[in-house]
């Protein structure tokens, strides 16, 4: 069923004090950045499986208060959703309704501000901007989500002060890369990636994968996951390689590269965001009828767009190490060409800045709903991928 209306979704990780994903902050917004209305939420419920959207994580959903008075709540999975509401203009009737909904199992988060006292007793979570952290917030830091964090230094400082939940684009912002020696396991994956891309020789690839038990197990889980619909289960490395083919093997290797770095800061977050970027770009590339080779490159561009943070290697050097062509390099480094345009679209959509790329979307012959539909498919695909 096609999506209705001109709105889009942003799904931003909320991290805990261990630099792991705790939840997702989801907003259904138009270009004026309004919270989700009843109509917006109805469209989402028709088109989105929350389990596919966020897996086992809870979701913070920013809504208009009118949603709380509507029978659409009968279709909301209360164990999955935490409603985020602005306390401004909430009436006594609204507060009584919130109390009733809490008794039914719904959870609530409120934006911190001058009207906070009247909703404090109802708040499971508090959303407070990093610039507004006063003594009152410090007393409630065990249930405060600190937002608008723009640097890793600020994130580290807040963690040492005892805050537990954090939201901001500090993870994705460009940072100075201090080169470090690449872990041998990651280096092996990079070398295998290059070999698969340059000359797809299944017997040789099978031998290389078998030398690494972690790779072998991951490959079998990947090919047997719900992301694929093969009639028969795959039980051998050789069968997996032959049935996946070069393109899917390259995708798996990049996913595994992130998974192999799960001891690095934000690795889990980088894996999910990068994978969903790549898949969204691949779907959009197919929609605008780019050749298969460019659709494959679109996935690689999205996946590689943040791998420099994982490996501690400048993007230019990484591209050289993986022997990637100029078209991919220009897309990642300079946002040039059609692949660069697609990367810019997914990045700006993640940031909630669709207005900045509306012209680009039109120039590619796409609509905003095409982008959102591709994102939703990418979210579902990632939840189906088994990389444990």
Descriptors:
alpha/beta, single chain, 2 domains, 388 residues, Hypothetical protein af1432, TIM Barrel, 8-stranded mixed sheet
Could you explain how this protein is built, in words?
It is a single chain. The protein is an alpha/beta fold and 388 residues long. It has helices at 38-47, 50-54, 92-103, 135-139, 152-160, 184-198, 202-210, 213-223, 237-260, 267-287, 292-304, 307-311, 315-321, 326-334, 337-351, 358-363, 368-384, and strands at residues 8-15, 21-29, 59-62, 81-85, 107-111, 125-129, 144-147, 165-166. The chain folds into two domains: 8-166, Alpha-Beta Barrel (TIM Barrel), CATH 3.20.20.450; 184-384, Orthogonal Bundle (Hypothetical protein af1432). Helix content is 50%, strand content 11%. Helix 8 (213-223) packs across helix 9 (237-260), helix 10 runs antiparallel to helix 11 and helix 11 (292-304) packs across helix 14. The protein is globular and about 70 Å long.
């Amino acid at each position: 069923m096609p999506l209705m209306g001109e709105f889009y979704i942003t799904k931003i990780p909320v991290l805990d004090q261990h630099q792991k994903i705790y939840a997702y902050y989801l907003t259904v917004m138009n270009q004026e950045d309004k919270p989700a209305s009843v109509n917006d939420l109805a469209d989402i419920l028709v088109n989105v499986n929350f389990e596919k959207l966020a897996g086992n994580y809870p979701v913070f959903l920013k809504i208009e208060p009118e949603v709380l008075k509507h029978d659409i709540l009968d279709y909301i999975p209360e164990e999955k959703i935490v409603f985020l509401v602005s306390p401004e203009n909430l009436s006594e009737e609204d507060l009584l309704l919130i109390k009733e909904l809490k008794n039914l199992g719904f959870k609530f988060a409120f934006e911190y501000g001058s009207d906070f006292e009247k909703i404090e007793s109802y708040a499971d979570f508090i959303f407070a901007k990093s610039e507004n952290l006063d003594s009152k917030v410090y007393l409630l830091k065990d249930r405060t989500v600190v937002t608008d964090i723009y640097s890793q230094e600020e994130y580290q400082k807040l963690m040492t002060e005892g805050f537990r939940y954090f939201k901001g684009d500090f993870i994705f912002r460009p940072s100075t890369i201090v080169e470090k020696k690449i872990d041998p396991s990651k280096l092996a994956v990079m070398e295998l990636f290059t070999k698969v891309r340059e000359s797809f020789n299944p017997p040789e690839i099978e031998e290389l994968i078998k030398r690494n038990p972690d790779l072998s197990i991951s490959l079998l889980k990947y090919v047997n996951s719900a992301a694929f619909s093969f009639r028969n289960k795959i039980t051998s490395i050789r069968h997996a390689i032959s049935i996946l083919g070069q393109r899917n093997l390259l995708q798996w290797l990049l996913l595994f590269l992130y998974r192999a770095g799960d001891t690095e800061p934000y690795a889990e977050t980088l894996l999910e965001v990068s994978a969903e970027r790549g898949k969204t770009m691949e779907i959009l590339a197919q929609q605008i009828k780019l050749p298969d080779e460019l659709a494959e490159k679109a996935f690689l561009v999205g996946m590689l767009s943040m791998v420099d943070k994982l490996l501690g290697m400048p993007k230019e050097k990484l591209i050289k190490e993986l022997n990637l062509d100029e078209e991919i390099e220009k897309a990642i480094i300079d946002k040039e060409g059609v692949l660069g345009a697609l990367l810019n679209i997914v990045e700006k959509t993640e940031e909630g800045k669709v207005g900045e790329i509306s012209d680009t979307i039109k120039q590619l012959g796409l609509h905003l709903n095409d982008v959102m539909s591709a994102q939703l498919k990418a979210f579902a695909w990632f939840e189906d991928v088994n990389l444990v």
